[in-house]
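To fix ideas, we quote verbatim one protein's residues and fold tokens.
>
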Amino acid sequence: MVTSEASRWAEHEAREYSDGHERPLGGYVKVIATYGASVAGLSALVAATRRPVPERPDLRDIGLVALATAKASRLASRDPVTSPIRAPFTRFESKGGPGEVNEEVRGHGLQHSIGELLTCPFCISQWIATGFGFGLLFAPKVTRQVAATFAALELADFLQFGRAIAEHRAEG
């Protein structure tokens, strides 16, 4: 009885929220629950293994992880080479910016929700940054090396774009 009432209430709220548009709220709940369960599980593992947790994150790690997350999220969500990972949830639309593709999310419910997560560099960034954060607790040296590689790629991209802009301006 309580379950069917809650289900009717959730369906009503989803209809009211969606205003006639298809919005996969149930899929979003599953994605949020997966993220929350992952963070809770990893946090429990940190506590169970008595890993030392710093009083506050080192600013150098924050900068490194920010640059690495920016690059990794673009690679995960837009790179042609990672498109097989997104393919079950997306449809190719066109070539995007340099070294990127544009994809349309497909499907309904959870499939659509995962597609939105995988095609949005801002959305997937939270998951990637969380991975780096726990990586710094479990394997800091390896995590910093991996993050440094992604950070170097991100900085190299900015240099490539800067060079292209300078060459374009020089051509007149």
Notes: The first strand starts at residue 90 and ends at 95. Residues 21 and 157 are 37 Å apart (CA to CA).
